[in-house]
C-alpha cells in the first residue's frame, strides 16, 4: 500500500545505480560536474616554499585562491609563464618549480589578490 505523496523509492531493478546525493541515475547525475566548478579556496591566498617529500627539490605553493578549477588552471598558466618555470595544479593548489615565492606574491598582489607569504 502506497500513499500518493510518498516518493521515496525503497528498491527498484529499473535504472541501475544512483547518486547518493541527488538520487538521479549515475549517467544523469550533475553532482560531480558541479563539484569541479565549485570555488575551492577560502580567499586567504598564501604563498609558501616547500621542500619536504619532493626529493630535495624546492617548489613554491599557492594556497587558498578563490577560483573555480578552470579559472585556477588559467591563472596558473599565466603565473608559470610570468615566472618562466614549470608547475602544476593539484587539489586546489598551484605548485611552481623552484623558489619564486617573492615574485609570485608580488604578481598576485598586482593581479588584485590579497596574497601573503607564509612559512619559511
Question: Would you write up a description of this structure?
Answer:
The protein is an alpha+beta fold. The protein has a domain at 39-117: SUI1-like domain (Translation Initiation Factor Eif1, 2-Layer Sandwich), CATH 3.30.780.10. It contains three helices and five strands. Strands 3-4-2-1-5 form a five-stranded mixed sheet, covered by helices on one side. A hairpin with a 2-residue loop joins strand 3 (87-90) and strand 4. The longest helix is centred in the middle third of the chain and has 15 residues, at 69-83. The chain is elongated and about 65 Å long. The chain starts with 30 loop residues before the first helix and ends with a strand. The mean pLDDT is 82.
How is this structure best summarized?
The chain is of the alpha+beta class and 120 residues long. It is built from three helices and five strands, in the order αββαββαβ.
Task: Name some characteristics of this structure.
120 residues; alpha+beta; Translation Initiation Factor Eif1; 5-stranded mixed sheet; 3 helices; 19% strand
Mind telling me the CATH class of the domain at 39-117? Alpha Beta
Please name the CATH topology of the domain at 39-117. Answer: Translation Initiation Factor Eif1
User: Based on the structure given, which CATH architecture of the domain at 39-117 is correct?
Assistant: 2-Layer Sandwich
Quick one: how many beta strands? 5
